[in-house]
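Show me any protein, keeping tokens residue-aligned.
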Amino acid sequence: QVQLVESGGGLAHPGGSLRLSCAASGSAFRIYVMGWYRQAPGTQRELVAVITSSGITTYADSVKGRFTISRDNAKNTVNLQMNSVRPEDTAVYYCALRTMGTDRWNYWGQGTQVTVSS
């Protein structure tokens, strides 16, 4: 059983930055696809960013040019650097993991609240 724990959420002002981190348990982190989702009240959960085991990244159009996903396999962590944040970025952000042999996101963190407000 993989466990994911997010951290780094909080309050940011419009135009500011936040850095989210996700710590994963286990010894096979390097082979997993990792992603960040977010969900605001009353909205569908949105896939924000994905990073493959080889470091290839993809982003939702809403965050392209502003957010950067990265991973450190030696530390079993995946990060989301959020720059130029906007009020519409306010949501609970979830770290997710996809194991080999499936296109389904198998494991989820508990979420961390990000609020962008002046």
